[in-house]
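Bumping with the actual sequence this time:
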Amino acid sequence: MRSTPRAFVLTYDFHADAGTRRPRPVDRTKKHPLTAAMFRTFFPELSLALIPRLAHVGFSLTQPYLIHATITYVTFHRRLPEYYGYGLIGAYALVYTGLAVGRTDIPSLGSDAR
């Protein structure tokens, strides 16, 4: 009989040849094998939950720069080219659309926890 701990299957690898997922054994001798296996197994689900939150944070952080650019444009609009104002309109549309899309999943995630 073996004296070393046997590996058990918790995660799956994508098998490129067959286009299916195949089991991958977890090394029990390393630290925190269950945690590592969980993150490897649920990586697609975890990354899908992070994308809207990261988009919301990114668009929220761009708002001060957008306001600064708008104040600069209003102050020096005679010296700046006309397309600068059109760019600001597009930037506002992009940022606020991104904020709206980034916020769509956040309330639904909180309501499932009840």
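The tokens above came from a reply further down the thread. The chain is about 60% helix and 15% strand.
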